[in-house]
Specification:
Largest sheet: 5 strands, parallel
Radius of gyration: 23 Å
CATH topology of the largest domain: Rossmann fold
Order of helices and strands: HHEHHEHEEEEHEHEEHHHHHHHHH
Number of helices: 16
Distance between the termini: 72 Å
Strand order of the largest sheet: 2-1-3-7-9
Shape: globular
Number of domains: 2
Bound molecules: ligand FSX, iron/sulfur cluster, FE3-S4 cluster
């Protein structure tokens, strides 16, 4: 007999575990996490209570969770957590919704996970984002005070995102600036963030009752530990010096590297190139759009789309003398990257082609 769940009647327990297993594998997490998380969540009382707030944003983060099928990340997440409050998904509204929030906070004080979408405007005492007459500042402070942990979902909640671009008219900041001191939190930047990474964090919490290892920007290493550029399907074209130079030109139509169209993949940490979006088949660069660095608060809307990304230091060959390696520092600019490529190329007889093309062509175009 097929065992079915109440929340997602079309998803059998077997398919549920299978889907979790596929995702843990894709994320590079231990396979046993899938079965253990499913086992833990089979008792509804074990599911972590979640309160999910929205502030200044486009709701794309929730949309990304809801998109995709077979099964959607939303179906999987709803099977793992006890979702107490989510303004985009709940039927309640107005005072009824406000009461639900207060009840959930009281019932699960010190135990709930708070998911935050959107930035918080600080300017003019926060008047630019009010819900039920209360500012986002006050709501965030109130709800985060008794949370067990916080997940900042999207670049807006992480560091201000779109609302903080340009002159930042509302004084938008990310949630970390207002969270109570010492509260454990993790950030899943992206615009939108990849919903499978949220699922990975929730599974990790269910398994280990703690947050996964993070980088200096509080992003989980399993998802943000590598650069887009490292696993990009166009990387062979970058290495060979084949670039699209205009949208729609022959290089663009042939799937060449988008570096010269402003791609920020060489300085953007995320796993989009590995797990992609929706059915796991689409992502910006795959669709011909340069990466805009949506997981990096200091890249997205801070760097012009048409400046060349800094190319992280290529892995140096052991043939390169140690003295030259020391000169390069942690990161090389595009031209330094070319220099390193040329050194490696000379040493191993391979990199010189892309090095010379990369160094000459941007200069030619700027004449
Ligand atoms: Fe920001 Fe998310 Fe971009 Fe939009 O909630 S990260 S604008 S996809 O909606 O916050
Ligand atoms: Fe891919 Fe962009 Fe790197 Fe080119 S520059 S290989 S398109 S990430
Ligand atoms: Fe964002 Fe770049 Fe991935 S724009 S979705 S980090 S490819």
């Amino acid at each position: 007999m097929v065992e079915r769940s109440l929340l997602t009647p079309n998803l059998s327990r077997r398919d549920f575990v299978k889907a979790l297993g596929t995702i843990t594998t894709a994320l590079g997490l231990p396979m046993t996490m899938a079965t253990d998380a499913a086992e833990a969540a089979s008792n509804v009382d074990n599911r972590p209570p979640v309160i999910w707030l929205h502030f200044q944003e486009c709701t794309g983060c929730t949309e990304a969770v809801l998109k995709a099928t077979h099964p959607s990340p939303a179906e999987l997440i709803l099977e793992l957590v006890n979702l107490c409050y989510q303004e985009s998904l709940m039927a309640d509204f107005g005072h009824g919704a406000e009461e639900l929030l207060e009840k959930a906070m009281k019932k699960y004080a010190g135990k709930y996970i708070l998911i935050i979408e959107g930035s918080i405007p600080l300017k003019d005492n926060g008047v630019y984002c009010k819900i039920g007459g209360k500012t986002a500042i006050d709501i965030l402070k109130h709800v985060s005070a008794s949370a067990a942990a916080v997940i900042n979902l999207g670049i807006c909640a992480t560091s201000g995102g779109i609302a903080s671009a340009g002159s930042n008219p509302t004084g938008a900041v990310g949630a970390p600036e207002l969270l109570p001191e010492g509260i454990p939190y993790i950030s899943l930047p992206g615009c939108p963030p990849n919903p499978y990474n949220l699922l990975g964090v929730i599974m990790y919490l269910l398994n280990f009752n703690k947050l996964p290892d993070m980088d200096s920007k509080k992003r989980p290493l399993f998802a943000y530990g590598t650069l887009i550029h490292e696993y990009c399907e166009r990387r062979a074209h970058f290495d060979a010096g084949r670039f699209a130079k205009e949208f729609g030109d022959e290089g663009h139509r042939n799937g060449f590297c988008l570096y010269k169209l402003g791609c920020k993949g060489p300085e953007t940490h995320a796993n989009c190139s590995a797990i992609k979006f929706n059915e796991g088949i689409v992502w910006p660069i795959g669709n011909g759009n340069p990466c805009i660095g949506c997981t990096e608060g200091d890249v997205l809307f801070k760097e012009s789309l048409f400046t060349y990304a800094k190319v992280a230091q290529p892995r140096l060959s052991s043939n390169v003398p140690p003295a030259q390696q020391e000169d390069l520092g942690d990161r090389a600019t595009a031209s330094q990257g070319v220099l390193v490529g040329a050194i490696i190329g000379a040493a191993v007889g391979a990199g010189a082609v892309y090095a010379s093309k990369l160094s000459k062509e941007p200069e030619d175009e700027n004449k």
